[in-house]
Amino acid sequence: MLTSRLPGRVEPYKLAAHAEHLEGLVALGDMPRLADEAGVQNGDAEVWLDFAIDAQGRREIRGRLTAELQLLCRRCLSPMPQSVESEFLLGMVSSDALAASLPSTHEPVLVEDEQLNLLAMIEDELILSLPQVVYHDEADCAVSRDQLSSGESAESVSDSPAENPFEVLKQLKGKT
Ligand SMILES: [Zn+2]
């Protein structure tokens, strides 16, 4: 269990030169792009990073992260806890143009003025590791299998009866 926090920015070339290991927590609430993708999140991601220079002289970061997110169930649209885990291998590049020179084993990570925005890097990795779609187990879901098989969606279950086209029709007929 990690307790310390990772810094928001680091000097990655120095860390790689010294083969440093960093580990710590990163606040999920500080990630607006993750919030756009998956809704506002609370809590922390746990992150482990190893900086190194490989045999080809590339500066790289091997990392792992885990996080407990609250993602919307596609069936009932209420939040459900979902564990996300990712392992990654990043190659540092000083411009987007240099990213093409990396082997396919490495994802590029941009280092500007010898600074690396760790928060943005972890946010990118989290977004990449989001599952496409999540569902509750049937027993836990607010939308039961019966409702699904009768063709009712989550919206129509919770909406008022006036949304029902037959009810609307009745009201219209009553007026004439
Ligand atoms: Zn559900």
TrEMBL record:
The keyword Magnesium does not apply. Residues 145-176 are annotated as: Disordered. Keywords: Ribosome biogenesis. Residues 149-160 have a biased composition (Low complexity). InterPro entries: YceD (IPR003772), YceD_bac (IPR039255). Belongs to the DUF177 domain family. Plays a role in synthesis, processing and/or stability of 23S rRNA. This is Large ribosomal RNA subunit accumulation protein YceD.
